[in-house]
Specification:
Length: 161
């Protein structure tokens, strides 16, 4: 397995696994391939995006897993912090170490770039994710709270005086 950073030229290779992610979370309401393509071209790989996309490729060079990360500053002790937005492996590759190899790559990237934290969230409705993260030794953070503005509430707050 090979793990590497992806860029705009890799979009076509990334599309199938992102479509699988969409189907996993949204079923029949999943975005179409053309919508995902446009999203990656105009948003994920845009100038204002601080996201890096990692892909895990098998021996056939098929993308079997991905993660999205960003380095955030400031962080404790004048370091950086890596935040992982997504980690996903194809259903055909689960249980084969793809997720663990992606996590190790991200951890090494964090250490190599003087970051002393690697943080992420997981859906509470996904016990497999919680089991995986616990199994690899991550600790669940209970002292943090997660907040969100979304949709019309976001727009309403943004336009309030």
């Amino acid at each position: 397995m090979n793990i590497e950073f992806a860029n705009k030229s890799d979009i076509e290779k990334i599309l199938p696994i992102f479509r699988e992610l969409e189907e996993y979370y949204f079923g029949d309401a999943a975005a179409r391939l053309d919508e995902i393509r446009e999203y990656f071209q105009n948003k994920v790989f845009s100038e204002i995006s601080g996201v890096k996309v990692l892909v895990a490729k098998n021996e056939s060079q098929d993308v079997v897993g991905f993660a999205t990360i960003a380095v955030l500053y400031p962080a404790p002790k004048l370091s950086g912090q890596v935040y992982m937005k997504d980690l996903f492996t194809s259903s055909s590759s689960r249980g084969q170490g793809v997720g663990q190899q992606l996590m190790k790559f991200i951890a090494k990237y964090a250490v190599d770039n003087d970051c002393n934290r690697l943080d992420w969230t997981a859906e509470s409705s996904n016990p497999s994710a919680e089991n995986f993260y616990t199994r690899i030794g991550a600790q669940q953070i209970s002292e943090k709270q997660y907040f969100r503005f979304e949709g019309s509430k976001l727009k309403q707050f943004a336009s309030s005086k």
